[in-house]
Amino acid sequence: MKKLKEVMFVFTWVTTCVVFVTAVYITLFWPHESLSVKILWQILIVSFACSAGICIYPKSQEVSKKTAMLLYFLQYIEVNVIVLGCGVWFRWFYIYDMPMVLGMIIAIAFVFLLVSVLVWRRDKRMAKLMNERLQEYKPKAGGEEDGRKILI
Length: 152
Hints:
Elements: H1 2-29, H2 38-52, H3 65-89, H4 98-137, E1 144-145, E2 148-149
Antiparallel strand pairs: 1-2
Helix pairs in contact: 1-2, 1-4, 2-3, 3-4
């Protein structure tokens, strides 16, 4: 259940960011294009594929810092492969048009970085909350717990 919540959190933010980035991208590269509803389904499919990929990576707290950075880089590569591959498949850009390709790469980096920061902030907030709750349950110093003397 925890992984599903994580995927849905990431999916929500990825989809939101991709809609904004798509609006900018279309304005720059396809200003006179009339789009069909297919683009919405394509955005949902690609966003879900990118979000579901987080299930295969352990949390950064479970591995060394070096391994976490490597996994983060691999996840970034995976997202690039998914988005660029689907972009070619859905004809979002022409592979031979370097400004379009560069625009896609910049858009991917922007969304990846923004979502990563949002996930990091949420994880940090959750860790703080868990630590505060643990402090509430921690026995008080001096052999007292809940205001009562513990006799052994």
